[in-house]
């Protein structure tokens, strides 16, 4: 049987730490690197960042949209990034935020979570706002191939607040998503394969995460303002399950690969010190 994603992730984090390094070829970052905003610039940026970071972290998170913006040639670059991250020993969490119903959701699952697909990642992000149950094809494909799914729950963008904090039978919509993910992870060891996305800049204690038994992807760390101390405050006892995601703070150190690695190691040390000072590991 294929080893489950939750087990592979736990082993990778134990070996390399919890930091999730984003590869976001934003046009503004390409310009900062002195690169053209075409496919050649995209390829130079993405592969340089991959070479610098993928051998140092447990998880790399490419943002698919910036590759897709360049059409088929951009997607081909993304395929290379996925392959090279794996070759460097990193798990690939592809940030695609897909969410649909029926056969369309099944097609997305086939593209990103099925063996043999050139875009198949170790895990993907998905949106549950057409209904958590509509994501069933993704859960099934992930379970069959030993992959993972991270479901958007309480994101860090202000536009999501009204929907995600709305009441759903005495709990917030975001909490209902966490609870549904927890139900899928019940009994899994060392953790389940269904994670949630919860912003690192959110209000401490807003969500009950202790029963999730799965990973928490925490965007908002680094350039967006959240620190290692903030992570301990926001996530408390579940901090060992948190994957703080940093993109711009690392990528702005490029195109010098050594500078990117240096910043990454500094952040990893900060996270280790923050976790120990909180007494959670």
UniProtKB/TrEMBL annotation:
<dbReference type="InterPro" id="IPR001754">
    <property type="entry name" value="OMPdeCOase_dom"/>
</dbReference>
<protein>
    <recommendedName>
        <fullName>Orotidine 5'-phosphate decarboxylase</fullName>
        <ecNumber>4.1.1.23</ecNumber>
    </recommendedName>
</protein>
<dbReference type="InterPro" id="IPR011060">
    <property type="entry name" value="RibuloseP-bd_barrel"/>
</dbReference>
<keyword id="KW-0665">Pyrimidine biosynthesis</keyword>
<feature type="active site" description="Proton donor">
    <location>
        <position position="97"/>
    </location>
</feature>
<keyword id="KW-0456">Lyase</keyword>
<dbReference type="InterPro" id="IPR013785">
    <property type="entry name" value="Aldolase_TIM"/>
</dbReference>
<feature type="domain" description="Orotidine 5'-phosphate decarboxylase">
    <location>
        <begin position="18"/>
        <end position="263"/>
    </location>
</feature>
<comment type="pathway">
    <text>Pyrimidine metabolism; UMP biosynthesis via de novo pathway; UMP from orotate: step 2/2.</text>
</comment>
<dbReference type="Pfam" id="PF00215">
    <property type="entry name" value="OMPdecase"/>
</dbReference>
<dbReference type="GO" id="GO:0044205">
    <property type="term" value="P:'de novo' UMP biosynthetic process"/>
</dbReference>
<dbReference type="GO" id="GO:0004590">
    <property type="term" value="F:orotidine-5'-phosphate decarboxylase activity"/>
</dbReference>
<dbReference type="InterPro" id="IPR018089">
    <property type="entry name" value="OMPdecase_AS"/>
</dbReference>
<dbReference type="GO" id="GO:0006207">
    <property type="term" value="P:'de novo' pyrimidine nucleobase biosynthetic process"/>
</dbReference>
<keyword id="KW-0210">Decarboxylase</keyword>
<comment type="similarity">
    <text>Belongs to the OMP decarboxylase family. Type 2 subfamily.</text>
</comment>
<dbReference type="InterPro" id="IPR011995">
    <property type="entry name" value="OMPdecase_type-2"/>
</dbReference>
